[in-house]
């Protein structure tokens, strides 16, 4: 008899090819989910979905419509439940229950509609509003943002001089990155860490709520850059990349009450890191997009 009343999505099963850890997690997932359903007295209430690192199952508990999220253990998501607990549903999906040992969470159920379905500048304003609610003092368990930025900036500084990234961009980003790492204001607030249009869903108690945080203790100005590089085809289709990028940048900075210069510095640093990773992954279009954003916010 099958452990679950559904099959794991084929695309999720394919993640077993990512390596031994993934293969073990996928193999054990049906039993893990079955145990959670039984232990938490949950009833499956729809077809499962998945992201890059998790299975999400619609369920009910005592008639309440919720979702069970089971996560493949990974560094970025280690403190997701802690962040959601800290927010208490203010600006983010509400955490009902969590089992850190099994990397499982019971969450309120939101709609499938995300910010990718509304005009992009309106979406930037929505995110700006959320930032004001999410950026509370960080709990002490979170890793400081500067720990990651220092490492990535050192890697950027070591990029070969003949890499397809203008040397002046590398030098500027390394200088800014190291200055931000040394700045005490670069740590201390609870950051979502991955707040793009697809990670904000429509809700019932609030029009829009953030999901899937990758929390760190950091600087609110760090959160601007993903709004510039996501929905990139729309930037290209506009025919005026510079204006399209700057409109997004100024909308979120102005509506969130952020410091424009500091937000710009973080965009330069983040886009230089992103260009470095695109070079490593053999993605020249990603390098071009990152350079375009760096130029646009500074012109």
UniProtKB/TrEMBL annotation:
It holds the Pfam family APH_6_hur. GO terms for molecular function: phosphotransferase activity, alcohol group as acceptor. It comes from the Bacteria. GO terms for biological process: secondary metabolic process. This is Aminoglycoside resistance protein.
């Amino acid at each position: 008899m099958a452990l679950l009343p559904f099959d794991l999505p084929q695309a999720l099963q394919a993640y077993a090819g990512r390596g031994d850890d993934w293969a073990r997690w996928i193999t054990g997932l049906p039993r893990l989910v079955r145990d959670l359903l039984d232990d938490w007295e949950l009833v499956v209430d729809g077809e499962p979905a998945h992201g890059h690192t998790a299975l999400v199952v619609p369920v009910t508990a005592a008639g309440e419509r919720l979702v069970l999220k089971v996560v493949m253990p990974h560094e970025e998501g280690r403190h997701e439940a802690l962040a959601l607990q800290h927010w208490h549903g203010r600006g983010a999906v509400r955490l009902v229950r969590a089992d850190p040992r099994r990397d499982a969470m019971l969450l309120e159920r939101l709609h499938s509609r995300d910010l990718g379905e509304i005009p992009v500048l309106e979406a930037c304003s929505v995110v700006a509003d959320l930032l004001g609610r999410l950026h509370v003092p960080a709990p002490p368990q979170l890793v400081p943002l500067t720990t990651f930025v220092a490492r990535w900036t050192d890697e950027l500084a070591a990029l070969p001089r003949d890499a397809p990234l203008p040397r002046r961009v590398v030098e500027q980003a390394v200088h800014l990155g190291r200055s931000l790492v040394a700045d005490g204001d670069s740590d201390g607030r609870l950051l979502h860490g991955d707040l793009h249009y697809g990670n904000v869903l429509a809700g019932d108690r609030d029009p829009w709520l953030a999901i899937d945080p990758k929390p760190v203790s950091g600087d609110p100005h760090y959160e601007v850059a993903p709004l510039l590089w996501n929905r990139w085809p729309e930037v290209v289709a506009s025919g005026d990349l510079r204006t399209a990028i700057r409109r997004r940048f100024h909308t979120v900075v102005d509506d969130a009450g952020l410091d424009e210069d500091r937000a710009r510095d973080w965009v330069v640093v983040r886009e230089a890191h992103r260009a470095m990773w695109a070079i490593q992954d053999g993605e020249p279009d990603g390098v071009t997009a990152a350079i375009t954003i760096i130029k646009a916010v500074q012109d």
